[in-house]
Design a protein that fits this description.
By secondary structure, this protein is mostly helical. Helix content is 78%, strand content 0%. The protein has six helices and no strands.
């Protein structure tokens, strides 16, 4: 993809939207970890939060490669459409592990939806698509792990 000002802006907006979703996930998992009683689930949630932080850095690096700085105000259209992690925060306060797991499932499903939208919009170049696809795959795996916890 040849980067014009317009394509660069669209790519940056898309990537900033993903950062917003990842920030929500990082905060969501950190918050969830504080409210579950199971040490194993707490550890998993903290691992997922750390993974989201690493994903944020990867995407910020891609934005920096485009000669832009990251938008800490957060979100562009992808982030603004659905801030699921923030919306589900209230279910954490009950301390009910099943409710917290359900909230995490909702957050991950929303993140997956936004990642797929980012890939479908065709605003990203090859290296960005590779990173976003890798992160999407990891988020889908995390969702499967969380759903498995719900069954156990």
């Amino acid at each position: 993809m040849i980067h014009t000002d317009e394509t660069t802006e669209k790519a940056v907006s898309t990537l900033n939207g993903l950062i917003s979703i990842l920030e929500d996930g990082k905060l969501g998992y950190t918050n969830a970890a504080e409210h579950v009683s199971s040490p194993a689930i707490k550890t998993d949630f903290l691992d997922y939060a750390r993974e989201r932080a690493l994903f944020i850095v990867e995407i910020q690096d891609e934005i920096n490669k485009l000669g832009k700085s990251t938008d800490t105000a957060g979100g562009g259209p992808l982030g603004a459409i659905h801030r699921a992690w923030i919306d589900i925060k209230s279910s954490f306060t009950s301390g009910d592990t099943e409710a917290i797991i359900n909230a995490c499932i909702s957050g991950e499903e929303a993140a997956i939806e936004k990642y797929k939208m980012a890939l479908e919009h065709n605003h990203l170049d090859g290296s960005q698509i590779a990173i976003v696809s890798k992160q999407l795959n990891s988020i889908e795996n995390t969702l499967a792990k969380i759903k498995a916890k719900k069954l156990s």
